Amino acid sequence: MAKLKLTKNEQKKQKDSLKMFQRYLPTLMLKKQQLQAEIRGVEIRVQELRATKARLDMVFKKWIGVFGEKGIFTPDVLRITKLRTREGNIAGVPIPVFEGAEFEVANYDLTTTPLWLDLVSDFMKKAMLVDLEADCLEEQQRRLQKELRTTSQRVNLFEKIKIPEAKANIKKIAVYLGDQQTAAVVRGKISKRGMEAAEEPKAS
To answer: CA 20 to CA 42: how far, in whole Å?
Structure first.
């Protein structure tokens, strides 16, 4: 750490720094609050989606026996061909925003496959969309939490270190300059008395 210079220029520099820290701190604190609120909102939405997925899984389990019939429903029947997302922005943080997905259903013989295969495909699309949206939201959450950590560190730096340090430096310089000014006045008075004494006529 550089040694503090006890000068008027350094005092001005410290005062300017203090003003800057005090000006930016409220903005950082507001950003921190906004990020915390957004993260809570995303967490709630993820929980809702995971609960929906759990309910869909319960329904899916009831169909397992049918799905296994002669290996009719296999992973090849339904696949994702395109994931649709766009880039959003929350408190200056770029985030992915889920907009849906496109699926491809394999061609199958309508005369030899059960009627329930179409229903199962639609059901699986819903379940997969829920999972995809939840994954996208969890990525949002990860990015927002990373920015929150950085912002919190800056708030702590300004609030607990930089602002108190600048105030202490300003006070230290002010005391030093005040002492120097007092010493200069005392020296001036002593010098004046010395000159006055020198000018007095000597006794004969």
So the answer is: 33
